[in-house]
Each structure stands twice: as structure tokens, then as C-alpha cells.
Amino acid sequence: MTLLLLLLPPFPCRSRHHEKLTLLVFPPLRNLPYIVVSNANISRIYDNYLHSLSILLPYCRAAATHGRPAIASLDDEVAFTEVLAELVATHTDTIPTLAKGFLESSRYIAAPQVTQFLDHHLRARIGTRLIAEQHIALHYSSQPPAAPSTLSDSDSKPDSCYVGVIDTALRPAVTIDSCAGFVADICELRYGSRPRLLVDGEPDATFAFVPMHLEYIVTELLKNAFRATLESRSNEPIVVTIAPEHPLDHDHLRILHDSLSNSSLSSSSSSSSPSLYDNAPGVTIRIRDRGGGIPPDVLPHIWSYSFTTFTQDDSLCFPAASASAPIDGLGVISSAGAGGSSIAGLGYGLPLSRAYAEYFGGGITVQSLYGWGTDVYLRLKGVGTIAA
């Protein structure tokens, strides 16, 4: 039932029963001003969540009424997978729709309140969608002849390195090369030129991660670096350095844990020490440009939703993360449903990239030297290890 609870709608529902479920799952949505929820775009999301709840409630009621799991046979699992596929398709455009809704309602709600709400909501959405798409991918990988119509040809082919939507041997260098080519093509269309890009460090490094998450993050970061380089007329290449984190052996982990336990650390640090036993290797990626850095008046706002330096023309020339993926980078199963939706120019690229990075324990750090350039450090924690 965990998946069902995660998929419950965040907006207040009309019936008392629906309202209690909504409050249980996502209380902050109750604090949005009524006039904001009345916006056409946000109201559309409200209706989508009501639709999702109406589909999922029978599964909850069946389990409560009969005292057994609602999914008790292969046929039940097939039906439930079809339900999840419908929900994934229904909520494909949630982020751009919310972005436009909050932009239109900006006079009725303070920016810090919007940022707080979106930080909570988008992180919950990442988890919800990932769980749903992982279930769908595992279902269809166990039945190769049957594939959903929303899968592209490349996604429908079985791959021994994949466990659901997770690539256990993902090479960041390959993703960087692909995303750089896409962004460079857009730059050539917009500016008539494309910057040079060099990849150094350990380009053969691999780790376990969700490819679509990495693709979205890298595209957004490269988009900023390419644009800064071209607009500053810099001839210096953009340098991407890949530094993998090598897994520690168990003896080293035990020594680290014992030393931390015996040291005079604060209670908050001590409570986090068990995470040292998470031996999943990750990777740190540095993207360095000589594009003049971030202006001091802009730097404090780079993590704020709806803050953007894009013009309308820029928005048209910088679409979503890829031509085949939804703008939120999570459309592994329903990539064909992205249509023409985009959040380019709406100010969601960098904060949403950070949300993806932080979801599995990573993060993004920006270091800007105004008048010179910017270094962006993307740290990604692997989602696990595969036993030999």
C-alpha cells in the first residue's frame, strides 16, 4: 500500500473521506491561498489528482474490506500496471502546468512560500513517479513480447545492465556527450556557434543511477555553461571533469565508524554515522566554464523557482532536456507523452536539478568568480550495488 499512499493527490478533495486522505499525505497543499488553487493551470492539476485518487481508491477499499492484498494474482498485477501507466501519462505535464500556474498567480502568493511548496511537492513527485515507473519497467522487462505503446524502441529493448529504470553500469561520460551534442545544436541554431567541450578525469567510470535523472541535470547545467560562454564571447572550452567515488572495503568502513563513535562529535553527526555502511559508489562531476561568472545581484536567486534570466526568444530556443523526454526527466516509460511542453525560461531548471541530485543523497554546489567563470560541482550518490 506504500505506492498507493504516495500516489494519493495533494489537493483538497470534495468529499470528507478524500479530504482526510489528502491531509494525511500532503498537508502543505492545504495552505495554498484559495485564489491560487483557483488558477486554471493549478486547478487542472487538482482535477488530475482527483482522477488519480478515484482510480486508486478501489485498491485501498478492496484490501480493507476483504482483509487481503488487492493484488493477489498475475491478472491483478497486470491490471494494476495498466493503472500505473495511465497515471504516469496523466501526470506527465504536472511540472510545466504548475510552473505556469504559479507564474500567473505570483501577485497572490509570496515567492518564499512558492519555493517552500515546490521543494516539498517536487521531491515527493520525484519519488512517486520513480516508484511507478520502476514497477512498470520491471513488469514489462519480465514480459519482453509485450511493451506499452508509450515506450520508445530504444527503451523497449531489454538490457542486462538495467534493473527497471535503473542502469547499474551508467557511464556519465556517455550521457554528457549526448546532452552536450543536443545543447550545442540548440546553441548553433540560436547563436550561430557552438562552444568546445572537453571531458577529462575518468570518462570510463560507471555507477548505478537513473539515466533520465542524470540526463536532465546535465542538460540544464550544460545549457547554462554554453550560454554563458557564447554570450561572453569566450574562446575557452567548457571542461567537464568526472571523478568517481570508489567503494570502501568493509574493514575501512568499520574503522571509520568506530573512530566516529569514539570521537566527541555532536549528536546530529553521530546519528548520521550508520550511513557510512552504505557502500554504493557515486560520482562527482565538475562543469567549468569561462563565461564571466554569475553577476552578484543574480547569485542569491539562482535556487529560487520562477527566477530566470531567459528572454522569450531564449525560451523558444532552449526546449526541454531532450527531444524525446518530458521536461522533468522522469518520463522513462511515457516519454512520448511529453508533447511540446517545456519549462525553459520559467526558472525551474537549476532548483529542479538540485532536487533530482539530492533525492538519492547527492547535491549541486555553484562557485562563481564574477568576471571570470563558474564551477558547478554535481555530486551523485549511486542508488546501490550489485552483488557479484
Automatic annotation (TrEMBL):
It is found in: Mitochondrion matrix. It is an enzyme of class 2 (transferase). GO terms for cellular component: mitochondrial matrix. PROSITE patterns: HIS_KIN. Gene3D superfamilies: Alpha-ketoacid/pyruvate dehydrogenase kinase, N-terminal domain, Histidine kinase-like ATPase, C-terminal domain. Residues 211-384 form the Histidine kinase domain. SUPFAM superfamilies: alpha-ketoacid dehydrogenase kinase, N-terminal domain, ATPase domain of HSP90 chaperone/DNA topoisomerase II/histidine kinase. GO terms for molecular function: ATP binding; pyruvate dehydrogenase (acetyl-transferring) kinase activity. Keywords: ATP-binding, Kinase, Mitochondrion, Nucleotide-binding, Phosphoprotein, Signal, Transferase, Transit peptide. Its EC number is 2.7.11.-. Pfam families: BCDHK_Adom3, HATPase_c. The keyword NAD does not apply. Belongs to the PDK/BCKDK protein kinase family. This is Protein-serine/threonine kinase. It comes from Ophiocordyceps australis.
